[in-house]
Amino acid sequence: MEDRIIERDFGDLAVNMGPQHPSTHGVFRLKLYLQGERINKIESFLGYLHRGVEKLSEKLTYDQLPPVLERDDYLSPTSNSLGFINAVEKICEIEVSRKSSYIRVLVAELQRISSHLVALGTYGLDLGGALGGGASLFLYCFREREKILDVMEDLTGTRFHTNMNQIGGVRYDVKTESINKIKKLIKELKPVLEDYANMVSKDEIFMKRTKNIGIISKKLAEESGGSGPIVRGSGINFDVRKNKPYECYSEFDFNIPLGINGDAYDRTIIRMQENIESLKIVEQIIQGIPSGDIHSRKPLKSPKLTRPPKGSSYFSIESPRGELGFFIVSDGTAIPYRMKIRAPSFSNLSLVEKLLPGTFIADSVAILGSLDPVFGDVDR
Amino acid sequence: MLDSFIIFATPIFKTISILILIVAYLVWLERKVAAKMQSRVGPYNVGYPHGWLQPLADALKLMTKDDAIPKNSDSLLFNFGPIWIMVVSLASFALLPFYFENPMLNVDLSLMLFIAISSLIIIGIFVAGWSSNNKYALISVLRMTAQIISYEIPLIISLLIPCILIGSLSFGEIIRFQEDVWIIFYPVLGQISFIIFMISALAEGNRIPFDLSEAESELISGYTTEYSGINFALFYLAEYVHLFGICILGSIIFFGGPNGPIFSGNILIVIKALLFFTLILFIRWSFFRIRIDQLLKFNWIKLIPLSFTGLLLACLVKYYMDFN
């Protein structure tokens, strides 16, 4: 018998990270090929939270869809329905009243703050562990978020999946007491948000862990199709609210914070600065909510189905994670013929395969957290 | 025969039971302090004032849990790991004068022996991580070994600085020396060695910012990933016993042990150790974790040169003091 020479290749150590892992922000599976502590190669697997929303939308009417779509990006539900409703209104050529537009933006911006607070808190868990300083940051962030949710409850009756937006307007009017409550919220939130931004950005260990980690160059950011804080961290001035203003954003005065290096640190700091800008918008809305109807159609006492004319439309808005677009094809019935969602988390997450190889295991967590993916949004 | 065995075993039994009681309440203290820092309440419902029965409930829960052993693991080593760690961390207390007037083992080189015993813990941890047959546990123990080996050097040197100034390695001598002035108040050298001791104690005790072996955001739970039930409880307990040992060591070497401004007694050692433990808690619940390469670089480039400088300085001071 021929002698067999057994060659054993003690190659890379393949480690599965996810789908059940504390720091993959949901159900994301990464297969890391490790050489010691260093990552040589990665493979990523998606689809563990696929709920078939796009297919489901071919079975539901336009009026039934917004509450379903709010479950998509579950950290900022309003922005999903806002994008969808704007796309429908674009086909139907419905003009919404200025008041309802103001209320939509109010809810969306409040939810942007709450979403960014969750992003910062969970990033703390990624960096500091659930049994350390990270947990303290996480709980601080959630304490502040709780106040926003209380206001949401007051505005819409729901704490989280607000279901505020409707085709043609909004569901509920803003009461005077609610305005007072929001004023109080702004007063409480403003110093706290600045405090957290300083607390994190000047922390020695935080800087050590995030500076020069996961650098997205300007070129890579342009090629990747990423959007939101991820590309703004690299210094690309792209924000749908400014570039293609929708609703009533052109009436407000706010800045787009930009980063320089495009590393994880810049992305986190930009989220913190965006919070402060969002608070500015909320302040301006509160000062002058116009009078008028909140709904361009009759209130839904006698439900009438929305039947858009034949055609298609694409509408994108700025969700906390980036450009969230809805492409709708209508065949003239009450049910969409086809709907495609351009999810920001999905495009942003595609950067992972470019960023992770060559870094340490600990960095992989820091980079993934700084991209802030929401897996309801990625898998849909 | 039986009489002499009882005489031999009674102090050991007493020490261990008191130690485990203290350590159980250290966990409770930690949870309460953490809760206060994070504006929560913490354990409250088990036991009337502030959930004081919580540690007992936790222990009971862990004991009744199923003790699962992974299929492809080395079950002998798998069970040996936690027992070894527990035994070693309890054994180091034989040298510490914290409960009885005199320690059970009264030798001249007690400090050296204490360090020698407590550094055996790494064997148990390595065995546990290796035999679990889990990649996360393996990475964790590799990290842990690198970390403990490199941080043992500054830890020992920071303890040698007071010993050179005192001129003895026995706890009795060290305590007697500090009747007048505690080492922490010794100009320059006391503070330098305390800071080095503090940092390397955090690394030795596996606390944030240095808890890389347990980095749950990367390695699930490190070397304890596969452990459950009573085996996990042993790890948990041993970690706190070890940390409490380090705290007592700190209180003896730097804070004068039983010597106090108003009264003296062994209860002061425990009180000082508890304060020291609370300081470690504050650090733990307010910092992020650093990365493994940064940890080692910090040790070899900053901490070790600093500690050797301190050692040299201590030698010079001792030399001139002895001649004048």
> Which chains have the largest interface?
A-B, 34 and 30 residues
Q: What is the class of chain A in the CATH system?
A: Mainly Alpha
Outline of chain A, from the CA principal axes? globular
* pLDDT < 50 runs, ≥5 residues of chain B: none
Total domains of chain A, how many?
1
Per CATH, the architecture of chain A is Orthogonal Bundle
CATH superfamily of chain A: Cytochrome-c3 Hydrogenase, chain B
What sequence of helices (H) and strands (E) makes up the elements of chain B?
HHHHHHHHHHHH
User: Per CATH, what is the topology of chain A?
Assistant: Cytochrome-c3 Hydrogenase, chain B
Mean pLDDT across all amino acids of chain B: 85
Could you describe the largest sheet of chain A, including whether it forms a barrel?
A: 3 strands, antiparallel
Classify the helix fraction of chain A into a percent range: 40-55%
Per DSSP E runs of 2 or more residues, the count of β-strands of chain A stands at 8
Compute the number of strand runs of chain B.
0
Estimated radius of gyration of chain A: 22 Å
Q: Overall mean pLDDT score of chain A?
A: 85
Spatial sequence of strands, sheet with the most strands of chain A: 1-2-3
Structural class of chain B: mainly alpha
**Poorly predicted ranges of chain A:** none
Structural class of chain A: alpha+beta
Strand percentage of chain B, roughly? under 5%
